[in-house]
Amino acid sequence: MTDLGVVPKFLQEDNPGFPDMRHRLNTEPGIVICNHPSASETPIILSVLEREDLKVMVASELYDSLPPDIAQKYFFSASTGPKSLKATIDGIDAHIKSGGVLLIYPQLKRHDSFQGTFRKILRETLKPEDMVYCFNVNTADTQRLSGSYPWAGIGSELFLGPTANINKLRDPITIRTEEKYTQAGEWQSTVAGVPKDDVGVVLAEKYARMFASNK
Fold first, then answer.
1. Rounded to whole angstroms, how far apart are CA atoms 66 and 100?
2. Which among 102, 155, 163, 179 has the fewest CB atoms less than 10 Å away?
3. In what order do the strands lie in the sheet with 101-104?
4. Residue 171 DSSP symbol
């Protein structure tokens, strides 16, 4: 995280139930979700995930650019074509049933609705008792990060050597991060009876209410 000039501040750390919540994160099958306003979210989440059975949903362009063995082992493609989407959902289903966990960003930047892949996973893959572990990064904090061009630091280190990362010369930016353990059944009951076209908005509104204090 220091290479990005980021210091995550986990706001639930002092809560009595925090150790149990993190234990569930690192042992139970299901999915991990988070808002996605910047490039900081994945490093923040990976810094607390201590498991070998994690896969990450990524854009199809990134997935296709990776070496096939790496792509298949660690990632799922967010392709939206009917055949490729079915293959992805089938793969996610098998992964979670085998005890694995998937990291997905269901609400992309500037969207007020949860995307279709998350809705499909919720409807077709997850059992009510499966974990849906929610992170939320403070958007105002990430806007400060975006203005500091964090990836420039990594680039300077790559091209100029390990001592040249300019992020090490800056004051690190604190990213306030909230989290909550939930189960899929809670999300499924939220949209029970909701018209199909409204499901994505209802899910996004539920997530926003959960983290209304972390803006």
1. 21
2. 163
3. 6-10, 173-183, 131-137, 30-34, 101-104, 54-58, 75-77
4. P
